[in-house]
Amino acid sequence: MKTRNFKKPKTIIVTGCAGFIGSNFVKVFKKEFPKTNIVGIDDLSTGKIENISNQIKFYKKSILNEKEMEKIFKEHKPEYIFHFAALPRVSYSIENPIKTSEINITGTIILLEKSKKYKIKRFILSSSSSIYGGAKKMPTSENNNQPNPKSPYALQKYVDEQFCKLFSDLFEMETIALRYFNVFGPGQYGKSAYTTVISGWLESIYFPKNKKGFIEGDGSQTRDFCFVENIVFANICAMKATGVFKGEIFNIGNNIRISLKEVKEKIEKYTNKKLELEKRPSRFGDVKHTHADIKKAMKYLKYKPLISFSDGLKKTIEWFEMRRK
Ligand SMILES: NC(=O)c1ccc[n+]([C@@H]2O[C@H](COP(=O)([O-])OP(=O)(O)OC[C@H]3O[C@@H](n4cnc5c(N)ncnc54)[C@H](O)[C@@H]3O)[C@@H](O)[C@H]2O)c1
Q: Which residue segments constitute the domains of the chain, with CATH numbers given?
């Protein structure tokens, strides 16, 4: 594989900087690279204004607004693009396939087009393990599991990955897609109908008026839950990696799967509270297990999960406790 040297960037663009992962990314990135200018883009459609750090140059714009994207790229000449902006919920995409396709596909193409024009060094896409659609082989590696998207969202992310590869092939541009597995952590609110199990359950403990906790099936289903700081670290690794990447895909997870029953026990232990869950039947088409094989990311990106599930859960609980104060 060809290599290249890494130099600290002068300027990066972070889309979706008001969202859960994007705002965590900005915090960590600023600490590690205090001299780099961060240009944040978010239309605040689901992101929160209080998530925007005052250490960044912020644009409240939609990534679908091509004219505005042109202006931003032209003015700031970014070296790396960290593309987090999306409408990311599976069930929402089933109800809204047109709107989500526009933002999740066309939005990405607009950014790729500007990245090509302004000759960025590398484009890093937030992709999703949902692309596997119930992989047969566990742990799931990138090569021995063919994509089998089972929702508009999963298909949109798969198309994004293909567009990254196409832009790399056609225009000699570097792109990387990171397929995240079940992300959780501070900044993930549990109120929404589309939230994940961990933040939904913590919301039901700390803000019972907002959310009733429930469990689908018998709780034996397992997930490779990955703490958000590991996802942030993976993005930084993807920027620093010295290879040349043309549409390469990497799983990013914790490499350990944990059952929902165990998650419940740990939450009860660390919060010292009883988690009351309404029992519901298994959801049709729900995947029974997820488990990331992360060898490829470890080898080429030097990624490894820095924070264990339990430590991540404790930090997430601290954040819920702080919000209640
Ligand atoms: N959270 C997870 O478990 C998970 C798993 C796999 C992949 N991902 C991907 O990671 C990325 C970040 O996810 P998240 O959980 O932080 O989501 P999030 O919903 O918290 O953040 C997304 C942000 O994008 C912004 N946004 C939406 N449409 C926009 C538009 N048209 N223009 C500009 N900004 C727009 C929203 O306002 C929000 O701030 C997404 O691409 C998502 O698909 C997330």
A: 11-185+226-254+291-306 (3.40.50.720)
Q: Residue 66 has which token pair?
A: 């091509």
Angle at CA of residue 28, ends 25 and 32, nearest 5°: 130
Cβ–Cβ under 8 Å, residues 33 and 9: yes
Q: What is the pLDDT of residues 180-236, one digit of tens each?
A: 999 999 999 998 777 889 999 999 999 999 889 999 999 999 999 999 999 999 999
Residues near ligand 1 (Cβ within 6 A): 16, 18-22, 41-47, 62-64, 84-88, 103, 107, 126, 128, 180, 182-183, 196
239-268: buried (b, 16+ CB within 10 Å) or exposed (e) per residue?
bebeeebbbbbbbbbbbebbebeebbebbe
Span from the CA of 286 to the centroid of ligand 1 (angstroms): 22
Asked whether 272 and 317 are in contact (CB, 8 A), the reply is no
Q: Tell how far the Cα of 274 is from the centroid of ligand 1, in angstroms.
A: 31
- Interhelix angle 309-324/260-271, nearest 10 degrees: 50
- Summarize pLDDT for 259-307 with one digit per residue, the tens: 999 999 999 999 999 999 999 998 766 778 999 999 999 999 999 999 9
Q: How many angstroms separate the first and last alpha carbons of the chain?
A: 52
